[in-house]
Amino acid sequence: MPLKGLSEDSQLLITKFLYQKKAEEEKKRTRGLQLRIFNL
Fold first, then answer.
1. What is the rounded CA–CA span in Å between residue 38 and residue 40?
2. Domain residues of the chain, as ranges?
């Protein structure tokens, strides 16, 4: 039982981490696009 809860917690942490990483990449991409548009 404790092992199952632990694995669920770690899965949650991994999902959260991946989501934050993806969000940061999206921010960088949109910032790059904004700069490109601004420089035109």
1. 5
2. 1-40
Question: DSSP 3-state helix, strand, coil percentages of the chain (rounded to 5)?
Answer: 95, 0, 5
Q: Report residue 37 as tokens.
A: 């548009």
**What does the block give as tokens for 30?**
């949109």
What does the block give as tokens for 26? 């999206």
pLDDT of residue 4: 67
Residue whose C-alpha is closest to residue 19's, from 9, 29, 31, 11: 11
Long-range contacts for 28-37 (Cβ within 8 Å, ≥24 apart)? Answer: none
pTM above 0.70, yes or no: no
